[in-house]
Design goal:
The complex is a heterodimer of chains A (about 160) and B (about 180).
Chain A (H helix, E strand, L loop, with lengths): L1 H9 L5 H23 L8 H19 L1 H7 L2 H21 L25 H36 L1
Helix pairs in contact in A: 2-3, 3-4, 3-6, 5-6
Chain B lengths: L1 H19 L3 H21 L3 H24 L11 H21 L13 H14 L4 H9 L1 H21 L5 H11 L1
Helix pairs in contact in B: 1-2, 2-3, 5-6, 6-7
The chains are: A mainly alpha (about 160), B mainly alpha (about 180).
Chain lengths: ~160, ~180
């Protein structure tokens, strides 16, 4: 009993209540972000809002469990890579339109009927690319501003 | 429309509290109240896309602000009274009200009227043109793709700038540290 209490105290992050609530809700927040992104062409929302919600679920994880726990799931290097990948994907979708008519030409427009999940041509793909870009970018800014600064401050205090 | 004016009043009160209160954490919470009320205002004006983006970005920005302010040593700021600034602010407010009265003598037209030619085109043609049932998505990702690309570039530049300025150890600094340890 005492050993367990000791081990809980030495874990980084916030209290046990916050950790338990985070464990219960974080999957729902993440899934809600994915839903907002994938249904961006059907219902209100889109890549930007959904990407920020996905980033908020990772920010929630970082705040509750500490920087070392979240870096196992999604590290700063991975955030860099996903952000750059999203930007390149969005630009590639735009450039592919040149083949069919012009920059940002909706070349997949004829596929799928309106109102279904697979419809609206390049718009869902562009939503996914913007989600990767915005989500990873905001999470990278958060990690850089908060976690790394905090570790630096602790190093200085020592 | 009564609830709209209640929310606008709440936003004004929140903004005044945010600028006047001494404690930085209270100021951040007051800013959060302003953002929440603004997102409900967007919802009442039937703009759910903007409302979702507003509340989500507000939460992210407020969390970032809270964490960033709590990590600094400054927990309270000195608030000195500046009568000159208040007088100038009131003067500009009066000028704005005067200009509005001169420009719109019979009052503003109702919200959303008159409909512009461009905005009348999108609700009619976007469904057949792009296949997207969400007109806002069709506009920002198809008709106005350039704007979204520019916005994405702005965010990308901001992220790169933050990562460059705030990185944990500079290249030169780490080299110096390595030399001093040797």
């Amino acid at each position: 009993m005492q050993v367990r209490a000791m081990s809980k105290e030495h874990e980084p992050g916030m209290s046990l209540i916050v950790k338990t609530v985070t464990r219960l809700t974080i999957g729902l927040i993440f899934l809600y972000g994915i839903y907002i992104v994938l249904h961006g062409h059907l219902t209100p929302g889109g890549g930007f809002a959904g990407g920020v919600i996905v980033a908020l679920s990772f920010i929630n994880l970082t705040l509750a469990f500490g920087g070392s726990a979240s870096s196992k799931v999604f590290s700063l290097d991975a955030a860099h890579m996903v952000e750059a990948l999203g930007a390149i994907m969005f630009l590639a979708i735009a450039l592919l339109g040149l083949q069919w008519g012009g920059f940002f030409d909706n070349f997949l427009r004829s596929d799928g009927e309106p109102g279904m999940l697979v419809s609206a041509g390049i718009i869902p793909l562009a939503n996914i690319a913007i989600c990767m870009k915005v989500g990873a970018g905001i999470f990278a800014i958060f990690l850089t501003l908060i976690v790394i600064q905090k570790f630096e401050g602790e190093g200085r205090n020592r | 429309m009564v609830e709209l004016y209640v929310l606008l009043g709440l936003m004004i009160v929140g903004a005044v509290i945010a600028t006047e209160v001494k404690d930085l954490l209270s100021a951040v919470i007051a800013v959060g109240v302003v953002g929440l009320a603004l997102s409900i205002v967007f919802l009442l004006l039937m703009a759910p896309d903007v409302a979702i983006t507003q509340i989500v970005v507000e939460i992210a920005a407020v969390i970032l602000l809270i964490r960033a302010t709590l990590n600094t040593d400054i927990s309270a700021r000195s608030c000195t009274g500046r009568p000159f600034g208040a007088v100038m602010g009131l003067a500009f407010l009066g000028l704005g009200v005067l200009a509005a009265l001169v420009t719109f003598p019979q009052g503003l037209s109702p919200f959303g009227n008159p409909l512009m030619t461009v905005s009348a085109f999108y609700p009619v043609n976007s469904m057949a043109g792009t296949g997207a049932t969400n007109v806002v998505s069709a506009v920002i990702l198809d008709y106005r793709g350039y704007d979204t690309l520019g916005e994405a570039t702005v965010l990308f530049t901001a992220v790169v700038g933050v990562l460059t300025v705030m990185r944990a150890t500079g290249r030169k600094e780490s080299q110096d540290a390595g030399e001093s340890h040797e």
